[in-house]
Amino acid sequence: MSYRTALDNDLRTLHVQIIKMGTLIEKSIDDTIQALINQDVEMAKQVIEGDDRFDDMERLIESNCVSVIARQQPVASDLRKITSILKIVTDLERIADHCSDVSKLTLHLAKEEYVKPLIDIPKMSKQVKEMLKLTIDCYIDLDVDKGKRICKEDDIVDNYYKSIREELEMIMKERPGTVRQCIDFLLIAKYLERMADHITNVAEWVIYSVEGERYDRTE
Amino acid sequence: MENYKFKVSDLDLYYGEFQALNKINMSIKSHQITAFIGPSGCGKSTFIKTLNRMNDLIPGVTINGEVLLDGEDIYASRQDIITLRKRVGMVFQKPNPFPMSIYDNITYGPRTHGVKQRSKLDEIVERSLRQAAIWDEVKDRLKKNALGLSGGQQQRLCIARALAVEPEVLLMDEPTSALDPISTMKIEELAGELKKDYTIIMVTHNMQQAGRISDNTAFFLNGEVIEFDETVNIFNHPKDERTENYITGRFG
C-alpha cells in the first residue's frame, strides 16, 4: 500500500467518524429539548447517560489523528484537515456536554410547573439544531460559503439569548418566588448559546481546512 | 532590509539541446537555510551546481542569465573560479573524503590557498572539525586514514573540509541521503548551527527534512521553480496546486 493510499484511507475513516459523531449529537440536541419541553425524565436521563459515548468517540478520533500524524507526517491540505478534525472533535464533545448539562436541569425542574409556557427556548434550540445540521453539511461538502453563513447565524442565537435573559429578569422582579426556576432557565439558555458558539467554531475550522487561514467573522 | 546572498535572474541552462533550467528567478537570503525540493530530474541539483559553476565542467552546457553573489556576476569573464569555489563550498550526496589522513583532508584546501604555517593549519583543523561537530570523535586519530570513519562521520568530515577554507556559502546536494537516521539528525542539527555563520543551500529528497530545518523552500518541476516561499507556508498552505500535489504525495 502506497503512502498516499494509506493516508487517504485514514483520512476517510476520520471523516466518517466526525460525521457520525455530529449526526448523533444532532439527535442528542433534539432529545434534550423534547425532554425539557415535555418534562420527560426518562429521556433526560438517556441524554445524560449517552454523554459517555461522545467522550469515547472524542478520544478515539483524537488518538486516530495522532496516529496519522505520527505515521504519515501529513502536510499542506492533509495536515490542515487533521488539525481541523482535532479542533472540531473538541467542539462537538462540548456540545454533547451541554446537552447533558441542560438535561440535568430538566431533571431538576421535572416536578415543577414551569413559570410560563416555553416559547423562545424551543425556538432557540431549533435554531441551534439547524445550525448543527448545516455545519455537518458544510463539513461533508467542505463548503466555505455555507461555513460563513453559519458564522453569521450565530447572531440569531445570541439575540434569542439576550431576549430570554431580559424576559427572565422581568419575571424574577415581578415574582421573586420564581427566582430559582428562572435561574435554571437562564442557564439552559446560556448552554444553548454556548452550543451555537461551538457549532460556529466547527464551521470556522472547516473554512480553515479549505482556505488555510482562520476566518475573521468581523470582516 | 532583506539581505540576499544570491540573486538569480532569468537563468536558463541547456545540456546540448535539452533545456534543464527554464527562466529561474530566485533571491536567496543570507544566514538562512534554503531547501530545494522536487522530483528526480526536475533541475534542483543542476541549479545548485550553477551557484558555484560546477556545471562548467560538463561538456555541451550553455548557461544564459545572471547569478549575482553579493551583487557580482559569478559568470562574468573576470570571475576567478578558484576564488568563487572558496567562497561557495559544496558537500555531495555521497561522503567523498580523500584517501588520506583526517588531518590532510582538512588542510588540503587551505594549503592549496597558500597556508603553510603548521600552527595555523593545526588551528584550522581544530576549528573546522569543531564546527562540523566531529572534533571529539576524531581528535585522537587525526593522522588515521579518513576512509576508516563511518559514513556519517565521513560526511561531517567533508563538511569540515568545506568549512576549512572559510566559505560564505555551503551548498549541500542531498547531504544525508546515504546516512542512517542518527547521522542524519547530526547533520541537520549541524546545518542549524552553521547558518549563523554561513548561508546554506540544500537539495533534499526528504521532504520532512526540508520541513524540519529550512527557512525557505523552493519547489522545482521540469526545470522551473514552481513556488518559492518560507518553508512554513510551503508546508502549511502552498499556493500552487502542483506544489500541494507533490508534497502530499499525489504525484512524483
Would you give an account of this structure?
Chain B: This is Phosphate ABC transporter ATP-binding protein. Chain B: InterPro entries: AAA+_ATPase, ABC_transporter-like_ATP-bd, ABC_transporter-like_CS, P-loop_NTPase, PstB-like. The complex is a heterodimer of chains A (219) and B (252). With 219 residues, chain A is mostly helical. Chain A has helices at residues 3-38, 41-72, 76-108, 120-141, 144-174, 179-211. Chain A has a single domain, classed as Phosphate transport system protein phou homolog 2, domain 2 (Methane Monooxygenase Hydroxylase, Chain G, domain 1), CATH 1.20.58. The mean pLDDT of chain A is 94. The radius of gyration of chain A is 19 Å and the shape is elongated. The termini of chain A are far apart. The longest helix of chain A has 36 residues, at 3-38. Chain B is an alpha/beta fold. In chain B, 36% of the residues lie in helices and 27% in strands. The N and C termini of chain B lie far apart (37 Å). The relative contact order of chain B is 0.18. The model of chain B has no long low-confidence stretch (mean pLDDT 94). The interface between A and B is medium-sized, with 14 and 13 residues.
Number of strands of chain B: 10
The end-to-end distance of chain B, rounded to whole angstroms, is 37 Å
Helix content of chain A: over 70%
Helix-and-strand structural type of chain A? mainly alpha
Query: Mind telling me the CATH class of chain A?
Result: Mainly Alpha
Please give the order of strands in the largest beta sheet of chain B. 6-7-8-3-9-10
